[in-house]
Specification:
Oligomer: single chain
Radius of gyration: 52 Å
Number of strands: 12
CATH architecture of the largest domain: 3-Layer(aba) Sandwich
Largest sheet: 9 strands, mixed
CATH topology of the largest domain: Rossmann fold
Distance between the termini: 197 Å
Helix content: 25-40%
Order of helices and strands: HHEHHEEEEEEHEEEHEE
Length: 277
């Protein structure tokens, strides 16, 4: 009796029993998971070139601020050199303290100063970092005084009218009187440098050559002719376009030979001749 096989269905060894299979697949429309989109990452790293540009830009902005807006370059010191007849404090007042040194324009300042002070021949306005200004001036030197319309004007070696002066300021400087009383103005080119040099030479050597002291210089019609009065009440007439040295030598000879006969004047204006009375 086959106990092991009782009630059992036998399978032939050559057949594989088929089992009922349950489907393991689900509907993708209902059960499949949704795919998430990949996250975008921000690239926060800076390239070396961009970082360099940012640093340069910041440096430029800092420099602009320091140059134009900080107090480091505000003018706090003003110096004046070369002032003799002009007031140094008045010259300083043309420079506004507290103004930015970098933005200060010097040319308009020079023009204003020279317009107010004609006796200034040259002027320079120098900037000194970080906050100083130096004004250097050269005043016109007075070689003679021009007397006209009752006023005295200081004349520099180039013949330019420097400024009006008092009689006290004229001391020690030859005074030339204009018989025609022509009006002049400051900073005007009035006389030639040759005329200035002629008068200066006479004033320096007249007494040495003639033993006469000049008491006054006069111009009548033109600066080509110059009359000199002396302490002996003798008037000497010169021609200013010729050498003062040769004319003084001629005057010396005339005085040596004819001094007792001369009572009014000696005229040296004709070259090679001397007339006296």
């Amino acid at each position: 009796m086959n106990i092991l096989g009782a009630g059992k269905k036998r399978y032939h060894s050559g057949h594989i029993a088929k089992r009922k299979q349950t489907s393991n697949f689900r509907s993708p429309k209902v059960y499949s998971r949704k795919l998430k989109a990949p996250r975008k990452r921000l690239n926060l790293t800076l390239s070396a070139g961009l970082l360099g540009k940012i640093i340069v830009g910041l440096a430029v902005l800092t420099g602009i601020f320091l140059l134009f807006f900080s107090s480091y370059f505000k003018i706090s010191e003003v110096m004046v050199e070369g002032a003799k007849t002009v007031n140094a404090n008045e010259i300083k007042s043309f420079i506004p303290k507290g103004r930015n040194l970098i933005l200060l324009k010097t040319d308009p300042i020079k023009d204003k100063i020279q317009k107010k002070y004609p006796q200034i021949k040259e002027i320079a306005v120098l900037k000194g970092l970080p906050n100083a200004v130096k004004i250097q001036i050269v005043e016109r030197e007075g070689r003679l005084v021009w007397l006209t319309t009752g006023k005295r004007y200081l004349i520099d070696p180039e013949g330019v009218v420097s400024r009006e002066v008092s009689e006290a300021e004229s001391a020690g400087i030859p005074v030339v009187a204009d018989a025609k009383n022509i009006t002049v103005s400051e900073n005007q080119l009035l006389l030639s440098p040759d005329f200035i040099a002629f008068v200066s030479y006479l004033d320096q050597y007249f007494y040495e050559k003639t033993n006469l002291k000049p008491s006054g210089y006069f111009v009548d019609e033109t600066t080509y002719d110059l009359s000199v009065t002396t302490d002996a009440n003798i008037k000497i007439m010169f021609e200013t376009v010729r050498s003062p040295e040769s004319q003084l030598e001629n005057l010396k000879k005339i005085l040596a030979n004819y001094r007792d006969q001369i009572h009014e004047y000696i005229d040296l204006r004709v070259e090679g001749w001397g007339y006296y009375k």
